[in-house]
Design a protein that fits this description.
With 160 residues, the chain is mainly alpha-helical. It is 41% helix and 6% strand. A two-stranded antiparallel sheet has the order 1-2. Helix 1 (36-58) crosses helix 3 (103-127).
């Protein structure tokens, strides 16, 4: 069932605590290594809307359940970050404990927020970020093409 609603604003990823699923012993001390500012910009540049609209096409949330999830601020509390130890994008779904009186909504909301988080990460990886480091031994074609030494020696062009 398609959900016909406008996307909520993308989550504000600034001033977030460290993700709960990161191993504190292996986590990098520098908050900047989680690339939240960059991710927030990418979400605002369209990644959030692209992913949300795709998710809305297949979500099982009704408009009423969607309104409840939105009113509780659960979309805004989704967290996206770069995991420097695993070198990949990750996300964290907020606790849906506030929905406990309506357990059927709580379970559904958690599942749907997880689906949305996965889709946002896929959307970012598919069309918005390329943070992969060149692998060891991989040549950068620019090194040879723009090597200043090649222009200093006339013999490099066969001129004698």
């Amino acid at each position: 069932m398609a959900l016909d609603v406008d996307p909520p604003p993308p989550p504000d990823l600034t001033n977030r605590p460290p993700p709960s699923d990161l191993d504190p012993a292996g986590a990098v001390d520098d908050i900047g290594d989680r690339r939240r500012e960059e991710l927030e910009e990418l979400l605002a540049d369209g990644a959030w809307t692209d992913a949300f609209l795709e998710w809305a096409d297949y979500t099982d949330l009704t408009e009423s359940a969607y309104r409840s999830v939105r009113e509780l601020g659960l979309f805004e509390r989704l967290d996206f970050y770069w995991d420097p130890t695993e070198e990949r994008l990750r996300f964290e779904v907020p606790s849906v404990a506030e929905l406990a009186p309506r357990e059927e909504l709580g379970g559904l909301a958690a599942a749907e927020l997880t689906d949305l988080g996965e889709l946002v990460v896929e959307t970012l990886e598919r069309g918005y970020v390329d943070w992969g480091e060149p692998s060891e031994g991989e040549d950068d074609w620019r090194d040879g093409v723009f090597d200043d030494d090649a222009f200093e020696d006339d013999d490099a062009f066969g001129d004698r």
